[in-house]
Prior knowledge:
The chain is an alpha/beta fold. It has one domain: Aldolase class I (TIM Barrel), CATH 3.20.20. Helix content is about 50%, strand content about 10%. The protein has helices at about 25-35, 55-70, 85-95, 115-130, 145-155, 170-180, 195-200, 215-225, 230-235, 240-245, 250-265, 280-310; strands spanning about 40-45, 75-80, 100-105, 135-140, 160-165, 185-190, 205. Strand 3 (about 100-105), helix 4 and strand 4 form a beta-alpha-beta unit. Residues about 1-20 and about 310-315 have low confidence and may be disordered.
Amino acid sequence: RFLVERESERDKFNYVFGGHLYSEAAFRKEVDFAIAGGAAAVCAPGFATEFYKLTDPERYRVAQLLVEQTAGRVPAIVSTGAGSVHATVEFSRYAESIGADCLMVTAPKWCALGLREMSTFYESVCQSVKIPVMIQDADFTGGGLPAKLFVHLAERCPNFQFAKLEIVLPGSKAMEIIQLSEGKLQVLYGLGGVALMDGLAHGAVGVMPGAALIEIYARIFQLYDGGRQQEAKALFYRLQPYLIFALQHLELAVHIEKRVLKRRGLFPSDRTREPTMHLDQAYQKQMDELVEDAVQVCEEVRAASAAPRKAGVPAQ
Length: 316
């Protein structure tokens, strides 16, 4: 989400990758923007942060910046999944030591692991720290881990408290996890926000999209929880063209997220690290139109939220 071009010698990381540097100022600005827009917590570095293209020192630095900038205003969730138990435990302990409120952990993706090995991996991570742990069940084309494994881990590791589902049709599994754990495990959705209404209908307590359109997601939650489900659906459906385009590919989602952030004045650049997708002019035009439409919805949501307060009436 916040990989941008260099702004100054003073405002950058010391680690270079593909000719691109991080802007710490842009990252801090994004965190503030997310909180102001209604985020209940902020997580980094995840898939939308291109964590899979970062050096280890960069990932550690992102974690530090996240904890510093949230500054206790909302929980700081550090994504610490790595290619081995050792690397994940090391990063997790570091995140805990600097004040992270929660960890998000995804299993290694470079080799297929059996359920016993997956269980051992997650148990090792959970038992290495005291803060809450969220398991990121990221299987974008399948059903992910079985619900019983989540419950088994929760029984063995009291600090395993959250399941983030990024799978095909997650609703039934979400309800199964909640029921089998007797409500001890809380379920969140990922998938770039595209399954938000599915999550609300199946007991999810939250969704973790990118920060670029945060006001829309926050407003949908407010409407839904306030009993105004049809209004929540109508607002969500206005995002469908944007989400359908973005979520065809992970790199495409990163591209359009950064373009929105640049359009909204948060990032100086929307470039991504190589290797990545390179779009032709027709796709660039389509993306620009979708970005403008999405930003317009954000501005309408902000205006609607601000108007009642100016009139002395609590915002709904």
